[in-house]
């Protein structure tokens, strides 16, 4: 380890050890093969386990100073991934760190990985990285009252073993694209088993004329806070471009790892009311993407329809995510949880004073396995391809 980094740990070791979760930090560093077998045996010994947690954490910060040249970088990743924001800022001043995990969130933890099934491997620590963009206030469009509640799902993701920054709020189209570009190309993605892209904003359908087939095609897009109303594709962030970015060679996530997109935005101008059964607005909405692999997409409504949002509780999509994932992610795959989320939508509709309804849209592209999140479980570093 670099002497400057070693000295930084020594100077801050008292504060680093305060309010520190020994088990989470050890699990991450163990997965990254930072410690020797002798050190791991010491950490697991009954005498060591009887020591106060602060003292045990101090020992970790002491031992890591003797490790190799990449140990400090791994430690920073560990502190960020495990929700130790204060400790992360001590060693990386001026950088934005994740907030501590919310102890009030009860996530049911898996007791074992799925067996005898063809499933995606979700054993890395963290299980994956996520990015959350939440646009609430716009230059021209109406403010999305209650959308700040959508960000509560971040705490659930962290409790499930995912790592990511706090939400990026109120971004223009260009700023959103730049954030996604940086996120998709970061080297850390190559060390995890999945990634999740979450965007909550206004949206609609962009109509384009196909010259070769002489038909009008419709593309779903998401608005930035500059919400330009022009029907020019260059003024909008197309959903297909977001997903294509993570299916390109530029994305550092390893091939065969699942990519989950949760895109909360209206998908058209119409509302669905109880007792009415209007169909999608266009059969020409593009559905085939032969180059997309291991891709899951959750959208709040059918094509052509608005996405409902409660001004007190947030969007229906994230309300359902916050309700279903903590209770069922431990033993159910994503497709099964999708069905449970639709049941949540039915309940929200029954309580809606405007008699609104909504149907979750769920897509799989190039998917050949089931996706279980298995919160609370991780494999060894040897499990990574």
TrEMBL record:
Write the record's keywords in alphabetical order, separated by commas.
Answer: Apoptosis, Hydrolase, Protease, Thiol protease, Zymogen
Coiled-coil annotated residue ranges, if any: none
User: Where does the record place the CARD domain?
Assistant: 1-80
> Is the keyword Protease in the record?
yes
Q: Which residues form the Caspase family p20 domain?
A: 126-270
Q: Does the keyword Iron-sulfur apply?
A: no
- Domain annotation Caspase family p10: ranges: 285-375
Name any Gene Ontology BP term.
proteolysis
Could you cite one Gene Ontology molecular function of this protein?
cysteine-type endopeptidase activity
The record's annotation in InterPro entries points to:
CARD (IPR001315), Caspase-like_dom_sf (IPR029030), DEATH-like_dom_sf (IPR011029), Pept_C14 (IPR002398), Pept_C14_caspase (IPR011600), Pept_C14_p10 (IPR002138), Pept_C14_p20 (IPR001309), Pept_C14A (IPR015917)
Q: Give the similarity note.
A: Belongs to the peptidase C14A family.
Q: What is this protein called?
A: Caspase-7-like isoform X1
